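Summary of Year 1 activities. Much of the first year was spent building the evaluation harness for sequence design. The harness presents a backbone, in tokenized form, and records the residue chosen at every position. We chose the following record to illustrate the format because it has been used consistently in internal testing since the harness was completed.
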């Protein structure tokens, strides 16, 4: 899968998760778990952005194995 497509997908998921985090419909425990998901997605976005920069610098394909 192209890295840039994966990055886009993760950013879109993060938006939906952040909306859920801001919703009062969840319990405190659920908000804690959603918060962990937000953190993981932010770390994954950073990792993907770094991978893309490295691949471009090395003139490699921007494709990742899933």
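For this record, the design step produced the sequence shown next.
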């Amino acid at each position: 899968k192209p890295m840039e497509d994966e990055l886009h997908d993760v950013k879109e998921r993060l938006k939906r998760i952040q909306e859920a985090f801001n919703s009062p419909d969840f319990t405190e425990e659920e908000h804690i778990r959603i918060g962990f998901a937000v953190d993981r997605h932010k770390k994954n976005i950073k990792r993907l952005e770094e991978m893309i920069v490295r691949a471009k610098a090395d003139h490699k394909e921007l494709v990742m194995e899933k």
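Helices lie at 3-21, 28-57. Quantitative recovery figures across the full test set are reported in Table 2.
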